[in-house]
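Hi there. Long-time user, first ticket. I'm pasting a complex I've been working with (about 794 residues overall). I'd like to know whether the download I got is complete or cut off, because the file seemed smaller than I expected. Thanks.
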Amino acid sequence: MRQHNLSRVLHSLADQGALSRAEVAGRIGLTRAAVSTLVDELLRGGLLSERGPGRSGSVGRPGSQLLLANRGPCGFGAEIGVDHLTVCAMDLRGTVRARLERRLRLEGSDPVPVLAELASLLEALAAEAGALGLWPAGLAVAVPGLVARGTATITRAPNLGWSEVDLAPLLPSGAFPLRVDNEANYGALAELWGDPGADGPGSFVHVSARIGIGAAIVVDGAVLRGAHGFAGELGHVPVRPGGPLCSCGARGCLETYAGEAALLRAAGLDLRGDPGERTGELADRCTAQDPAALRAVRQAGTALGIALSGAVNLLDPQRVVIGGSLARLTPWLLPPVRRELARRTMLTAGGRTTETPVTGSLIGPAGPLLGAARSAVRGALDKPARLLAPPGGGLMA
Amino acid sequence: MRQHNLSRVLHSLADQGALSRAEVAGRIGLTRAAVSTLVDELLRGGLLSERGPGRSGSVGRPGSQLLLANRGPCGFGAEIGVDHLTVCAMDLRGTVRARLERRLRLEGSDPVPVLAELASLLEALAAEAGALGLWPAGLAVAVPGLVARGTATITRAPNLGWSEVDLAPLLPSGAFPLRVDNEANYGALAELWGDPGADGPGSFVHVSARIGIGAAIVVDGAVLRGAHGFAGELGHVPVRPGGPLCSCGARGCLETYAGEAALLRAAGLDLRGDPGERTGELADRCTAQDPAALRAVRQAGTALGIALSGAVNLLDPQRVVIGGSLARLTPWLLPPVRRELARRTMLTAGGRTTETPVTGSLIGPAGPLLGAARSAVRGALDKPARLLAPPGGGLMA
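Hi, the file is complete. Here it is re-exported in full:
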């Protein structure tokens, strides 16, 4: 129970930034005296710091503000992309303090050397973090594939050519908890946690496009994972059942209209450049009013709007957010998406017809990495006992 | 806390049927002594009865079995259908003890006299229930339309022609809680609660067809309601975006292929008979190998399979259940549904490709009424204080 209350104090500060003891007490429903005892323990353990209101110097007076520490435990986030490995260290306040990246091509790669590379990148990150007084209390890895629910195993990552890869034995996870999830889910969580002013826990569909198209469905603040962990496969929702052949073997999936390769082909662009990054060129051409580019994006938007109409009819979300590489194309993509949604979904609430709002993500392509790091931080805040007694030894302990 | 523990004793018996005191204690994690005190209070209040194991006659000995009472409080369920009003009284054990129905045509009806008719039917049900020693502790109404989340207001019921109808002032709800929900949601809950041997809380998509096609999405044992309460509109998921015009104004919705009118038209049948019941004739023709009937059902099954492929890709449910009037057509409907799902969804779990199972509902068209009544019973079991001190006065108190 005490551990639980310590965790609630930490989470209230993670959500709000800075609070007085009285404000913490109000938020978590404990007495001021009980909160003071908890706060003292966390201050002694170095998990909190205190900021005076500027009038007097005494620690613990009513007006002083508590903050999470920006030294000590932190969360490590990692992203395995088709063309990059990226890692970052996020302190308890949610600030990214160190970031490292290796550019490389991972299509059809052997997972063992790739994960050895990622492990060495994490060692380098631990060294950088250590120089800042930070040590990793958790690691979360965003991957471009399906992860079996409750495991660290990539069941299938078609764009890497990986299947049934268990990350746990190949990554430095002995000293702290390891989480692995689909990049679309972490991207959606970054969107959720990045909006502290939101009115209650959100319910939204977050579209995450790189090479393929995925989505995460967030219901009342939690990602809907599905029976096997495979929910959110928006890219394979049928748009036109007799349409073009998809890499999955079906016909007319959304990816055959709005996936990166389909978009570039329709715009008359070739497939050079880094996969997942080539829509930048397409956005430039749209800005220059290139007719083929505009037509390609319009057609992709229509297909995306048809697939999202199905999702909105089934899920009735508060909103739809377009993230990943498609977020760059929103000036041209959103009008046809909105037109299809207006035609194909009927939402009558409180006596008036409402439309489900569709917006581009403000977080951009860093979403999955930030969501993973934040997930590691939040997981660490759940277990304050581990943070008050940090493990000795190195990263691979 | 005591109310909460009384409620947990009642729910454990509602879920399991009959249990000894020791079994109840094991299920809810309290001591045998604490459970005995709770059970004594519930026995005194008439909410439980006791059944000896046949060896000795003393009350309260270890081997005796506890059961919920089959007298006293009960749940009232009601269904407003396009061609009927039906009500039933379900005792705490989940047995329907009384049932009344009026056949009438409600397309384009005025809601005020219809709800007056329903109120008089509920008065008659209360009289029948009273003769059995039962009194209503809650009422739940299944309606063929959208209900705004957390209200008793039908936002839109296109097949009745109703919009913005608040049931609360028009039904006898002064003496007990009133719940109103979409018939598809109650049908799904009947499916969920009707399977006590299921392995944990279910996650499934329940298709509910009458005249239109709806669905309920159950995630970890709870109906996913959506931001406004309008989730599950499977009938308006696009199947072929340029397809036939739907009553909703869009083109190619699932209802234009698999709704009752579309099915009968494709089979060359006219639209006589009771709406929502006319698929019986179609099933007879399929049994007789009528080619037009078989072709119509096959085409509907293909369209249903395409729409469900989208739902399965998005939601990754454990299973899909076909209920309502389409359940009668499953011998001919399921093969094309399964073929489309096998083509258009890719689920790889634990190293092997799995298919999401699709089955017909075993509950049949009574699902919404049974789910509503069970919902009223479960709501009553949440508030044992009300059941231990039943209200005096009549139904309209």
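A couple of notes from our side: Residues 41 and 185 of chain B are 34 Å apart (CA to CA). Chain B has a mean pLDDT of 88.
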